[in-house]
Amino acid sequence: MARQRLSIGTFGDISTRMSPSGRYVARTRYRDWDGHARLVQASGTTAKAAELALKSKLADRDLFQPADTTLTPDSLFSDLVTYWLEDIDLEGRSSRTTRNLYERNMRTLVSPVFDSLALREIGVARCDKFIKQLSKISYSRAKQARVVLRLALELAVRHEVLPRNPMDHVSRLHREPHVPDALMAPEVNVIRAAIAQWESAADHISGPKPDGQLGAIIEVMLGTSARIGEVLAVRRRDVDVTSPVPSIRLAGTIVSRKGEQTFRQDHPKTARSTRVVAIPTFTADAVRRRLAKVGSLGLDDLLFQSRDGTPLTTANVRRQLRQVLEGAGIRGVTPHMFRRTVATAVNTNASIELAAELLGHTDTKITVQHYIQRSEMVNPATAALLDRAFAKDEE
């Protein structure tokens, strides 16, 4: 009988037999991506279990293919996008949130322009023009489009579909200098007063009365520099207000995905973001009041939660803060502004290194660029220094 001819990446007929040990062994010939056919086998307690184990092993072996042979330079960009998203899922290194963000940015920003193009038609000039045109509309959108377009075309290069990545030669994006907005102490106190007035329910008309959480959330943000999602993810076990130095451990964040229930993720945005922060008196007092109000909490219960005991969403807290402050005539304040406010205060009174450490940044450049509001006032010590250097001779 002629031996079965196999294509690369395929397997032949599966044979199953019982071994002397009483287990079933399923085996077949598989033609690897180097062209050599090899015997692959797996065992199980039943013939069907052995066959399933074999197919699972073959599926894992299939992952070692060096390239996607279905893609060619004449394939449409839309085909590459599908394959790129499958590759992200296969690799499993990106979080679900990041993966979904990549897909959203690709589908909304890049695909409408590139989907009908063959891969060989996508060159430096086309990519460069696309990014520049998008940057005129929005720097942020251009940056997001640049990231996903580079990643998809990079995959095509790695899998030998394209000889080079045109995005490597696209002009750098230029952004107008941006001064981070931070609040001054009087502005912070005006915000505190507006929230306190609202939480007093003096002007309450209908619906559930304010539960006091918004004010406490603001105090925790001001005392830790934490992101809003990190604050909402603080559990009872993360809070220590009985030690000589009260502290809060930031070790998670709140995640809301379309079509899914909001949940607490057991790590923050980055590994460096997990940190224990000593908190000032005003934050410790706010946390104590919150604990006294909610009564008994389990160690894993959230410090801030809905009336049903579910996590608060960052979107709802942002919306509530905006509504409360706009009702008091205050506009333009966001939760992230408190993070920049804390960073600016720490930098002004201590150092940029301490501000970066508090924010959980690995690079002070990020802190300087996005979080520190630059002061126009030069250190007055220069006046005394220049007096000593250039003092007039006494007559």
From TrEMBL:
Pfam families: Phage_int_SAM_3, Phage_integrase
Gene Ontology MF terms: DNA binding
Tyr recombinase domain residues: 178-387
Domain of life: Bacteria
Biological-process GO terms, alphabetical: DNA integration; DNA recombination
Record keywords: DNA integration, DNA recombination, DNA-binding
Similarity comment: Belongs to the 'phage' integrase family.
Protein's UniProt name: Site-specific recombinase XerD
Source taxonomy: Bacteria, Bacillati, Actinomycetota, Actinomycetes, Micrococcales
